[in-house]
Structures are given as structure tokens and as C-alpha cells.
TrEMBL record:
Protein name: NNP family nitrate/nitrite transporter-like MFS transporter
Family that this chain belongs to: Belongs to the major facilitator superfamily. Nitrate/nitrite porter (TC 2.A.1.8) family.
GO cellular component annotations of the record: membrane
Annotated PANTHER family: HIGH-AFFINITY NITRATE TRANSPORTER 2.3
Origin species: Luteococcus japonicus
Lineage: Bacteria, Bacillati, Actinomycetota, Actinomycetes, Propionibacteriales
Amino acid sequence: MSSTTDPRSGGEWLQNWNPEDEASWDKPLAWRTLWITTFALTLCFVAWFLPSALIPKLNSIGFAFSKSQLYWLAAMPGLSAGITRLMWMILPPILGTRRMVALTTALLAVPVLGWGFAVQNANTSYPVLLLLAFLAGIGGGAFSGFMPSTSYFFPKRMAGTALGLQAGIGNFGVSLVQLLTPALVGMGALAVVGESQQLKTKTGVPTEVWYQNAAFTWIPFIIVGAVAAWFLLKSVPIKANIKQQFDIFSNQDTWWMTLLYIMTFGTFAGLSAQFGLLMNQLYGATGSAAEVAGYVPVDAVKYVFLGPLVGAGARVLFSPLTDKMGGAIWTLVSGIGLIASIAWTMTALNPDHTSAATMQADFKTFLWGMLAIFLFSGIGNASTFKQMPMIFEPRQAGGVIGWTAAIAAFGPFLFGIALTIMPASTFYGIGLAFAVLCVVITWMRYARPGAPKPS
């Protein structure tokens, strides 16, 4: 990746950078870049999924939205992430790693602060909340810039591990915000800004909460991330203008890998955003399950973080295995596992309301099935990101990573819209058929003996 003819020189711009040359590769710089950008990416996911942690409880703190409005609200960050990823995918060669990561991290403060103030006033209008949900999607959009940027710093033999660590740890931001929100909102000592809210409970006695904490707590970390990126990162002067970056679309593997990443990350992101609402609808106090005699409705807050946690953990743990065994075989495992786990979960999408015992049994089936879906989607997230640097040359690999990530980021939006217009069982059936298609593609193109593009 020599840049001797590139006008960008000195300061933040590295010269004659070639990670494939072991003798000249600056390994400490590469790992420093990975850890700083991973910290920033984790905050991006926190900002992206902050609405998903707040929306299920909005009506309990004084708002009055319909089920459809809540699904649309939860879907909006996904729409934004998909759109903004199409923008961020072209930024690494233009801005460089340092400026892109620092400025993006600083920008997260806008939606995070916005949500912190909005939840304090139940009269905040629905359009304002839609706008804040859309702005939160900037955190999701950053992924398509951060990941290609990081790929410039590592040799191909380490691409699976490096990108898997960054994406996997970054994905933990989803679980982090969903896990910590219930604890943070109960800590009055943290509420240095704003007034408390009254949370409706099953007993009828309201509880004092501070939902602004779920947002404001992250501001100091955002500041640290932005400052660290600005002062400690460097940039690789990749030579690729916007026109050159779009030559990836003439390569058929761009389109096949897009489908595979929709199956994996699209599923992970879509279910992460909608898991709590779907659980509430099927087994919570807001759905018809609450009317079953003797049945104790499920509190989604206790379980919603588990799915993203399992998916993110799988991405981290399986990334080294993709470096050792190749990505294609694990993408195949991911697809087959998704087929089985989706089929299992479908048996619990129409709960049996005849008794409390059957409801509880159905919920266990639903929960374990959903966690299995998250597990196999996480494995596929790791394996597909190993495949792309192996299939494409470095400049194109960055663009393909950005593009596939952009399209898959529409997952939360598409999942949210689908669950408002069709029964969950119908939507899962479509997902099952899509997974079968992706398994066939993986086997024929990448995983079988003599495949055209073994990866």
C-alpha cells in the first residue's frame, strides 16, 4: 500500500505502509489502532441501540404510543444506519482513520444528549422522538467506515481475528446499553441533570426512576473516545476516489457476500432492536399473555440483553477459528444453524393460552430458540468478515466490507416494519427460506471442494 505518489504526507499520514511485509509492519501501531477504534465502535453501538433500551418502557413513564408507533420508533435507527453506512463506507480513503474515528465519535453526543432530555418530558412529540431515533443510527453507520479502515492496518492472515475482535467487541455495545439501562435509571445519585419520572409497575405503585441516566452516563466515555482517536491514531493514505470505490459492483462476489451478511448481521441487528418488543408482545404484560390465569408475564428487561451478548461473544470467540480453518466453512455452519434455530423458534411464536404452564413452556422454547439464532448469526458475522479480505484485493475488500455492512444494517428497520404488517410466524418463515438460499450459495460458491472462490 505504498503512497509515495500520494499528496497526503507527514503528520497523521503513514508512508509506504505495507502490513504484508513483516519486517516493516508496525505491529504496535496496528494493535493500538484496533483497540482505540474498537472502544469508539462500542460507543457507536451503544448510541445506535440506546433507543431500543428506552422504547419498551416509554409508555410506562407517561408516554402514550401505539404498538405500531413503538415498532416504527425502534425501526428508525436501522433505517438511518443503512443510509449512513452508504456514506461512511467511502470515508476511510477520504478522511483517513484518525479524522473519521474522532469526528464520528464526537458526533454521537448529539443523539445521546437528545434522548437524555427527551425522556424527561412525556409531552415530547412523536416526530421529535423519530428524529432522535434516526440520529442514533449514525452510530450504526460508523461501522462501515471503522471496519474497512482497520483492515488497512493488518495482514490478510490476521484479518479474521482483527476484524472479528473489533466487530465482536463493538457489538457488545448492544448488550451493554440494554443490560445497564435498568440499573442506571434507578440510580438517583447519577441524575445530575433533570427531574425524575414515575415508572408504572405491576403492583400499581409507581417507582421513581431517572431515564436520562441511560443516556447521559455515556457522554464522558464519548469525550474520551473522541480525544484518544484525535491524538493517538494515524491514517493510511489509500488511493481510491469515489468512482474507483464503486468498481466493487462489477464483481459478482460483492452481491453474494451481501446476501450472506444480510443473513448474519442483518439478523443479529434486526433481532437486537426488536427482541424486547417482540417478547413483550408475545409473553409480556402488554400482550394477550397477561390475560392467562395464573401466568406471570415476562419482564423483557431481564432477558433482552442476552441475545446481543451471545451474538457478540460468538463473533469474538469464533474469529480466531476462521483464521485457522477459513471463513466459508463457518458461514456454512452459521446458515445451517440458523435454519434449525429459526424452525425451533417458530413453534413458540403463537403461544398456547390454555394454561399458565403451557405459556411458561412456550416461553422457554422461544427464549432458547432466539438465543440460538443470535449464536449462529454471531458465528456468521465472524466468518463472513474473514471471507471478504480473502476474496477481494485490499482496496476492494474495504469497500465490500463497507457495502455489505451498510445493507445488512437495514435489518432493524426491515424487522420492525415486517413485524407491524405480518404475523411473526410469517416473517420467520421468510427468514427460514432465505437462510436455505444462503446455505446453497455458500456451498456452491465458497465452501465445497473445488469451489470457485474458496475462502
